[in-house]
Amino acid sequence: MEDKKKKTSEPAEKDAGNNQWTNNNLKYYPDKRPRQDGPGGN
């Protein structure tokens, strides 16, 4: 019964494939617009 518990694997490193904050399209069409941070953004 104890064999079923496996060690959890190491957390995956973030790269362009699994990072929610990257946008693949920006590679080809960079966003040159000035930043417009909302309230509290610095």
From TrEMBL:
<protein>
    <submittedName>
        <fullName>Uncharacterized protein</fullName>
    </submittedName>
</protein>
<feature type="compositionally biased region" description="Polar residues">
    <location>
        <begin position="17"/>
        <end position="26"/>
    </location>
</feature>
<feature type="region of interest" description="Disordered">
    <location>
        <begin position="1"/>
        <end position="42"/>
    </location>
</feature>
<feature type="compositionally biased region" description="Basic and acidic residues">
    <location>
        <begin position="1"/>
        <end position="16"/>
    </location>
</feature>
